[in-house]
Amino acid sequence: MRIANLAGRAVLVDGGLAVDVETASGGRFGSDPQAVYREWEAFREWATAADLPAGTAFEVAALGAPVPAPRQVFAIGLNYRDHAAESGFEVPEGLPPVFTKFVTSITGPVTEVTLPPGGHTDWEVELVAVIGKAARNVAEEDAWGHVAGLTVGQDISERVSQLAGPVPQFSLGKSFPGFAPTGPWVVTPDEFADPADLELKSAINGEEVQKGRTRDLIFSVPALVARLSAVLPLLPGDLVFTGTPAGVGLGRTPQRWLTAGDELVSQIEGIGELRQRFI
């Protein structure tokens, strides 16, 4: 099942066509894309069993963030060994580095992003897990049962403010407007042969700059749900950006940054792609 936000309305994407949730459910579920996750169990049961009407064609550019207003956004740092190495940090143990991307940075899959003046803006393709069932002290072996689905995310990062002292400002440096594109839709785990082993990659102007597999995560999606929920409740509709593999601009010699006119394309196997143009 694929759940999307088409022009502000919740839709199911079936065979490449959009089925309006409110219309198809006879009003049982509303049009708010975020509300789907507050009623996730009932929604999934209905959507799985429903005899859906014919969908309509749509432009991907009309899609918004599939989870537009999460109450909590968790972002995980240094969750691939090769990225930790290129960043000059030790591989984390126990609890991974956690920060947030503020909700106002969240956008849909096809956008224009204004570069901050004087900054070093970097790219980080990431698998994003969407929480569907409240999680508190969840065992790792039970964690997939709390995940509604997976989507593509970009943890776009402005490195100057992120790393400015005396204390780094990770959350601010990663939360400029448009710095958290997500989408194109949320895909439920049952759609994948193995939701724990997906290829992810990104390219700038057609040049591949990142490529990895989520099987190489230091803390897998279930491990993150378990460790985070041991500290605080995870709420339906929360997002977990799971970290990026090697290939970011910060780790290159010489370092490389996004510039006006660049197009960044981010892809994850079995989900789809994001497309950002920088101005």
For the structure shown, list the relevant keywords.
279 residues; alpha+beta; Fumarylacetoacetate hydrolase, domain 2; eleven-stranded mixed sheet; five-stranded mixed sheet; 15% helix
Outline the fold blueprint:
Blueprint: E1 2-6, E2 9-14, E3 17-20, H1 21-24, H2 35-38, H3 40-49, E4 63-64, E5 73-76, H4 81-87, E6 98-99, E7 106-107, E8 110-113, E9 121-122, E10 125-131, E11 147-154, E12 157-158, H5 159-163, H6 170-173, E13 180-187, E14 199-204, E15 207-213, H7 221-229, E16 239-241, E17 263-268, E18 272-278
Parallel strand pairs: 5-16, 7-13, 8-18
Antiparallel strand pairs: 1-2, 1-4, 1-13, 2-3, 5-6, 9-12, 10-11, 10-16, 11-13, 14-15, 14-17, 17-18
Notes on the structure:
GO terms for molecular function: hydrolase activity. This is Fumarylacetoacetate hydrolase family protein. The mean pLDDT is 95. This protein has 2 domains: 2-58, no CATH class; 67-278, Fumarylacetoacetase-like, C-terminal domain (Fumarylacetoacetate hydrolase, domain 2), CATH 3.90.850. It contains 7 helices and 18 strands. It has helices at 21-24, 35-38, 40-49, 81-87, 159-163, 170-173, 221-229; strands at residues 2-6, 9-14, 17-20, 63-64, 73-76, 98-99, 106-107, 110-113, 121-122, 125-131, 147-154, 157-158, 180-187, 199-204, 207-213, 239-241, 263-268, 272-278. The chain is globular, with a radius of gyration of 18 Å. The protein is α+β, with helices and mostly antiparallel strands. The strands form 3 sheets. Strands 1, 2, 3, 4, 5, 6, 7, 10, 11, 13 and 16 form an 11-stranded mixed beta sheet that branches. The protein has a 5-stranded mixed beta sheet with strand order 8-18-17-14-15, with no helix packed on it. Strands 9-12 form a two-stranded antiparallel sheet. Strand 14 (199-204) and strand 15 (207-213) form a beta hairpin. The longest helix has 10 residues, at 40-49.
